[in-house]
Amino acid sequence: MTLPKAATTLAPIALVGPGTHTTTAPSSSSEHLTPEQIEQIGKELDALRTEVMNSLGEKDAKYIRRVIATQRALEFGGRAVLLFARFPPAWLLGTAALSVAKILDNMEIGHNVLHGQWDWMRDPKIHSTTWEWDHATPAAAWKRTHNYEHHTFTNIRGKDRDLGYTVLRVTPEQEWKPIALIQPLTNLGLSLIFEWGIALYDLEFDRRAAGEMPEEEAKAQMAAFRRKALRQIAKDFVLYPALSGPRGFLATAAANLVANLVRNVWSHAVIFCGHFPEPTETFEESRLEGETRGEWYVRQMLGSANLSGGPIFHIMTGNLSHQIEHHCFPDMPSNRYRQIAPKVREICARYGLRYNTGPLPKQYFKVLKKIARLALPGGK
Amino acid sequence: MGALAAISRRVRDVAGLLTQPILPDDVLGTINPLWSRSEPHARIVELRRETPDTTTLVLRPGRRRPRHVPGQFVGIGLQIDGVWHWRTYSITSRPDDPHLAVTVTAVPGGLVSGRLAHATPVGTLVRIGPPSGEFVLPDPPPEQLLMVGAGSGITPIMGIVQDLAARRPELLDGAVLVHADRTERDLIFGAELRRISAATGMRLVPWLSARAGRLSAEALTDAVPDWAARLTYACGPAGLLDTLTELWERSGDPESLRIERFVPPPVSAEGVPGGRVRFTVSGITAEAAPGQGLMAAGEAAGALLPSGCRMGICHTCVGVLRSGAVRDLRTGDLHDTPDQYVRTCVNGAVGDVEIEL
């Protein structure tokens, strides 16, 4: 094995800023670890994964079925109430139910089912190859950019397009361009239209422009997007409003718009808190060369950040509040992350690795601060 | 009827716009699995203990009762520890019965059969597949019928006999049923078959192997001297079916013997080194071990593959071979023509393979 060298010579860039207090270990990187220790971390995490995956059973299956049933009850219950959206109490109730339904659909259900977390049940109705979600981007496009590109190349600068989603400067190593000056506004806008931002991002216009995508593939993806997007828009802004009658049309359309906005702002906040709050680290592409399993785990842990909160909060974030655990084990059912989080944290503490976590407002503020700072050239 | 179907399809299309990205059917299935058309379910409404290790499950299907021909089998999906397991069982109820019955014998060490025969309570929801199978009578049915059912092999024959007794009892007059098992109390449907025999004139020949030894070719020809003149349906252990096949090939007309195997002939790992199997539709890649079926390898890697009998009979599991070579684990036949259909349950990988599934 040739890895040991990489672990010590490719010291990740320290991104610790002043005033960050969420570290549980003093170290800012993995420099202090010997190759043997890194290998040992890999073994411990592998063992943890095996233990959980072997224990999956009826309780887990019931959990995801219950979440799906709850989501569908909220969605169709909410939409039924919104048929009377011209009455303010119905508008409020329906919009709240639909907002929660859309968040559950995207976060705890869609994202996780599409990761294959529930494939072990062999249920054709809850399977990564058959699932489709209430989101502008087709499931297949999402799986390509997210499951493979982001999860494999997490926080590798130049490889992980999720680092700033091609429109934001989120690490000082990214080249500064004048457009970055308005990136606090760009970010705000992105947060409002996040669903569409992701859909456009999944179409990979940067790769198209660079001539890296075969034309046929590009056309097929565009057609799939158009089909999905049209149906999504028709449902929320034409069909259900029309069902509410001429006097309810606008009220229902407005309710659906708000539910979409709530989902967008919420998922944007949760997702941006997954990799951008200080002091998460980014890495150079050369790190990938000969990267071992242990080094891969270390990169995932140092490149991710958790959110602290209660059980309902975790579900509403799709358990991406356990981003660190999710990045170590992307295909582990999300209901198990909470159970293993103390063990992962203990492993980090024992090896002197940072375990970045904090409440959502605090972590999100750090993200906004970083985006504001990096709007200007330089940064650290 | 055609107009009604067209209207209901149109209604579903419109409803689909309102439920997208899921189907109206998924919404119904979430409220009550029995309402799902795309993933048909059935509820167990009655259990009949036939023998110490055999139970008949009476199922009330959901929205649509699957149509079957007597003698066919049906896939039953049972969730065990959160995982869906599919097995096929012969249907032992009549096509015009609103309920669907399958009769399950617990196989030693069998996860699903043991659970179904002994530990699945009334009220359990199972999934059901489309009935299939070629072990059915020709139309019109033959005048001279011989049936040989041994062990749980009596179950498809029971499906046939019951239906004839109800619809065409005159065809059973003069028919012969050789019913073999270890002892009297192991005979599945013993009492029911005696009743049918008394009512129709069907000749019932019980064969108890604990007393009389295994049913041999000589014993059969002694018991049914005019065997060669009859159309014969046989189902039972592989050894018995091999014996009968040999007898019919030697001194009868092989065309007049119809057999149904429950257990696949022994598989061989010879010439099946395994390899990397890529399922092109799902994009899932599996490592197939030497002698392992493509289906087993794919399922272990999390692929969702069509499956039915899992023994190379029903062709539910076929996929297009896009590249590479596979070998039939039972016969040793090599398939390496691109774009041909192969059964994933009984073919193993000979090197790296791409299957369109």
Give a nutshell description of this structure.
The complex is a heterodimer of chains A (380) and B (357). Chain A is an all-alpha fold.
How are the secondary structure elements laid out?
The complex is a heterodimer of chains A (380) and B (357).
Chain A: H1 4-9, H2 35-54, H3 58-81, H4 88-114, H5 139-152, H6 183-192, H7 194-202, H8 205-209, H9 215-243, H10 249-275, H11 293-302, E1 306-308, H12 311-316, H13 323-328, H14 337-350, E2 357-359, H15 360-373
Parallel strand pairs in A: 1-2
Helix pairs in contact in A: 2-11, 2-14, 3-4, 4-10, 9-10, 10-15
Chain B: H1 2-19, H2 24-31, E1 41-51, E2 54-61, E3 73-80, E4 83-90, E5 100-105, H3 111-118, E6 125-128, E7 145-150, H4 154-167, E8 176-181, H5 190-200, E9 203-208, H6 209-212, H7 217-223, E10 231-236, H8 238-251, E11 257-261, E12 275-279, E13 284-288, H9 294-300, E14 318-328, E15 334-335, E16 341-343, E17 347-356
Parallel strand pairs in B: 7-8, 7-10, 8-9, 10-11, 12-17
Antiparallel strand pairs in B: 1-2, 1-6, 2-5, 3-4, 3-6, 12-13, 14-15, 14-16, 14-17
Cofactor (chain B): FAD
Pfam families (chain B): FAD_binding_6, Fer2, NAD_binding_1
Keywords (chain B): 2Fe-2S, FAD, Flavoprotein, Iron, Iron-sulfur, Metal-binding, Oxidoreductase
Oligomer: heterodimer
Can you tell me the overall shape of chain B?
A: globular
Mean pLDDT score of chain B: 92
* Biggest beta sheet attributes of chain B: 6 strands, antiparallel
| Main sheet summary of chain A | 2 strands, parallel
Radius of gyration of chain B: 22 Å
Beta-strand residue fraction of chain A: under 5%
- The CATH topology of the largest domain in chain B turns out to be Rossmann fold
Percent in helix of chain A: 55-70%
Count of individual beta strands of chain B = 17
Number of strands of chain A: 2
Q: How far do the termini of chain A sit from each other?
A: 34 Å
CATH superfamily of the largest domain in chain B: Nucleotide-binding domain of ferredoxin-NADP reductase (FNR) module
Organism (chain A): Pseudonocardia thermophila
Protein name (chain A): Linoleoyl-CoA desaturase
Domain Fatty acid desaturase (chain A): 90-357
Pfam family, one (chain A): FA_desaturase
